[in-house]
């Protein structure tokens, strides 16, 4: 399989993963032009994409959705609540009915030879999900926009080869920053986003001897920066109640404006 973050951050998200036969995007929250450019950098094109998996209807996850769907006829997989939210977003435009495939959390489905397991996440959206994606025993997942995690999330993310995990904000930066009070409360709530510390605590519960790569993603532009996210998560893993040392794992940042390295396994 292959895995690459084309863009990940509070201003736009788009993740690529593929088997030899089936290519998927998780979210399309940047422009169609940027998606095409990012795919070109890993020797792919938008025409190669077999499905769009949409986590939820916020603009940083669906900005380029309408253009891609109408121009290339790519099937879209999202929950009923997410489709309802997409329909309310006038900037996306009309999404053709024949491209809509309604999914549900905890009800697996397949696209080509790839097996996909949506799982419910805690976020202030209509019916948001994360995605666990598998092919011939190879497993990856995208888990962002989660205000909290629990045993259910931990179960959905266990035994992975590759994981993109939200590490959205530093709590102190957020509390001292310029965001209005209501927005700070939203981000810090159980329906907001994972902090660096909380992401590190979760990661410490997910690491295994065979995991190949961990991407830290969906970093806030205002309330985080790459070195801080990396150091905080690494410290939480190393000092946490688990047997792991972060230095024993390949942990990198999924960049906001640039494609990450492509992982193949």
Write up what this structure looks like.
The protein has 265 residues and is an alpha/beta fold. 28% of the residues lie in helices and 24% in strands. It is built from 9 helices and 14 strands. It has helices spanning 32-40, 59-62, 65-72, 80-87, 151-156, 171-176, 181-188, 196-206, 226-239; strands spanning 2-7, 14-18, 23-26, 51-53, 76-79, 100-103, 109-111, 114-120, 129-135, 138-143, 162-166, 213-217, 251-253, 263-264. It has a 7-stranded mixed β-sheet with strand order 6-5-4-3-2-1-14. Helix 8 (196-206) packs across helix 9 (226-239). It is globular, with a radius of gyration of 17 Å. The chain starts with a strand and ends with a strand. The relative contact order is 0.15.
